[in-house]
Amino acid sequence: KEELLSPKKNQVTTYGMGYSQQRYSDLKQIDRKNIKNLSPTWAYSMENLSGEQSQPLVYDGVLYVTNAKWTMAVDVETGRQLWRTQEDFDPAALRVVCCGVSNKGAAIYDGKVFRMTIDAHIKALDLKTGKVLWKKKFAEWQDGFSGIAAPLIANGVLISGTSGAEFGVRGFLDGWDPQTGQHLWRKYTTPAPGEAGSETWPQGSDAYKRGGATPWITGSYDPETDLTYWGTGNGGAWNPIDRPGDNLYIASVIAVRPKTGEIAWHYQFTPGDPFDFDAVNENILADIKVNGKLRKVLIHADKNAFLYVLDRVTGELLAANEFAKQNWAKGIDLKTGRPVPTDLLDRIKAGEEVEFWPGPRGGKNWVPMAFNPKTGLVYLNAANQPRIFKFSKLDEYKVGQRYQGVQTSVPPQNPNEPNGFYMALDPLTAKPKWKIPLMDYMQWGGMLVTDGGILFSGKQTGEFVAFDAENGKKLWEFQTGSGINAPAITYEHKGRQYVTVLSGRGGGAPNTPTELREKIPLSGMMWTFSLPKK
Ligand SMILES: O=C(O)c1cc(C(=O)O)c2c(n1)C(=O)C(=O)c1cc(C(=O)O)[nH]c1-2
Ligand SMILES: [Ca+2]
Questions:
Q1: Which of 119, 246, 276, 302 is catalytic?
Q2: Per its UniProt record, what NCBIfam families does this chain match (predicted)?
Q3: Global pTM?
Q4: In angstroms, what is the span from residue 232 Cα to ligand 2's centroid?
Q5: How far apart are CA 279 and CA 300, in angstroms?
Q6: Which numeric CATH code is attached to 2-80+91-530?
């Protein structure tokens, strides 16, 4: 079992390519010199048009991959399907996904592959046959819950989150026995009256029950601290009129014990979050020098446009710097750990219509960044897009219905203003080593960095691209036929390095602007690349 958990060159059994979620590989068969020869080895049809956002896994020469409709096992060498198992959800459940019908991935452990489903279930499939070994309902999808994230196995416990903050659900994490599917614990991410943190909610109100804070992207795990690190979603409703206060643990990182669900520490990125600043973006674990001392840290580029470094043992804030354009905070005060707000929030609260940056898509959305421990840099694609925001009347909460209370629109884009940037940053200062403007569209593909000096990412317009990680120069690209909005992986099989990525327009951004819908056909393919055999 332990061998399943430590990252190996020929195995990718976790979301993020290892518990630290660095999306870094020390493979270097594919390098700056030979990348021009990188070629498709095969392509596999996902038989799906609703969008591909999943990160594949690899075990013993087999790829395990998910979308909303299927779980599939595919042979690495030939691209032939070994098995696939269909999801049998009620199509009506698609009503309660806020931002596209997809799935972000699975987890492998002890001969099983674990995944969540759109209709709020979690299940275990047999690695060899795809047979469903157990399946549990974690909530009623009719109430606004959905399961899209890859689960996490930590210290023998299977941990899963939920989506649904746009529907005013109350977020939580669940712990399960991976063998039997027995439910072990539930930790709500908004506290009930009397619990720690409840003082940050209006007293005598049940606003916490609709408070959001959904952990909808997989946490990372440090076996030494025995803590998992999960980001939590936005506050519910977006319009905070019914929930004055900081509202723990919305828009936060929580350090959670895998055996019990206990919260060891927390840090809130956006107190009271009125902007849909989900804080679910990946928490990368690394050991880096801070003021000359090696520290165990957690690196997080938030939707709110600040790049944070925290001590992952204690939760102490070490650095917080702007990485994308924003106008809601003057900065983050390192002493108090709190943002120093501009007048923007007061103005919207007073009923004014405002243009706010970075908009609810964030300075960066869930598509993951990568960290290279050798260069100490993070590689990410940032968005550079504002939104017009005006709080409207907050309608009475109705279970399973959208609960937002905000009118938003996208202002016309200045053609000289980039839609976003590809960048390599120092996590402690957010100073770019290099920065490349994205003039056509913001990007929604994850990052993967290798010891061969290559940075891989995909574009909404379908190109799978390799950059020189040193300077961001494009070295190679391949048109996959539909938009890429998923993270790639790399691994070794029988001495050969492969790179695999999913292509298929879908998810939160790629269906807007409408222009992209017209230009980019739907598809669902898994592409695998390698260097030609000599
Ligand atoms: O608060 C939530 O529960 C929640 C869930 C999801 C989701 O399930 O994909 C997204 C969001 N929020 C969200 O705010 C967002 O911008 C977003 C983009 C995407 C995507 O798949 O591209 N999902 C989501
Ligand atoms: Ca959200």
A1: 276
A2: PQQ_enz_alc_DH (TIGR03075)
A3: 0.97
A4: 9
A5: 9
A6: 2.140.10.10
